[in-house]
Amino acid sequence: MTATATIEAVWRIEQPKLTARLARYLRDVGLAEEIAGDAFLLAMERWPRDGIPRNPAAWLTQVAKNRALDRLRRTTMIDGKHRELAIDLTALEREMPDIEATLDEDMDDDLLRLIFTACHPVLPAEQRAALALRLLGGLSTAEIARAFLVPEATAAQRIVRAKRTLRDAAIPFETPHGQDRRERLAAVLEVVYLIFNEGYVATAGPDWLRAGLCGEALRLGRSLVALMPQEPEVQGLVALMELHASRFAARTGKAGDPILLLGQDRGRWNWSLIRRGLDGLNHAMTLTSAPGPYLLQAMIAACHARAVTAADTDWIAIAAYYQALALAAPSPIVEINRAVAVGIAFGPAQGLAIADALKDEPRLKESHLLPTVRGDLLERLGRLAEARAEFRQAAGLTGNDRERALLLARANSPALRPES
After folding, report:
1. Least confident of 3-17, 31-45, 264-278, 391-405
2. How many Å apart are CA 318 and CA 343, to the nearest integer?
């Protein structure tokens, strides 16, 4: 491995910890990230010349703290904010003599604070996701732009606005407790799952699946499990992502074309990930008697994972879990998925009744999901012309090239052509 590759690998691991520790003292996530970046740039300059330090994390921390001290010393203390920073300056100086001994002190707490700060509900979802990938995933602005298929300037703007909002709103760098923590945790998990889903089925672009983005979400989720091992919803989300990720190899053909769940070769599923996901789910179930939304979704994914063939799937159980999910976290997307499950478990007419109740839902007006599901249910009812129209409408709404091709193929399928 080259020195540059080593530095980049160290950075991906250490950057969240370093930013978290600095943010504790500086009380400014943007400034903490800037100083951590300065330490990285110095490493890029010196390590190839001088060699990799014995303890790279300690070296980066020492440099970053020196930079932070210099920054604070240059600050003219003329208002209350700067007087508060003076206290942190003293704390930083007190730690300096024994940097390696203090390197891991309160690190878990610092990372938790960073996660809850980066994913604060005061930020729009797209800004939370971008900031989380930047601060917690160590991704560059260019990588984040590629991840969400937006111009680099857009990704940069999201990150800058997120930092500015956190600073201007004076969001405290802390881990919330009690009811506030439960509410904030939902925002954190939403961001992680948003990142995963964007990789699992890309909303736009030429690729159906982007495993790298799913991998980042899994890494963030597993970090959360390590930091919050008694939170059942954290365990449930990671189990859910692992069970979904187990299907990656079977989700596309050789040319990258989508293969839907019921048509997948289950021999290509990753059974190691399935076992890990099922073990995580079982552990999460011991932590609560009232499963939350992510645990319920993991239970649904487990039904698919346990089925040796598509015909073995327990669709009645899946329909019941979706009913429970609709009560725990009602949303139009849950209802669409419930329509699919009910349609398979109890017949397409019952599924279509659920789907038809969503036709005036404003949140679905620009989504391809409802016409896709209606097309499938109408086809199974023999209403072929209507099904063909639904698939064409769905194709016009999706932004993903692979999905559009799949929907147009279904619309033009000989099975949907009227008899001559």
Report:
1. 3-17
2. 11
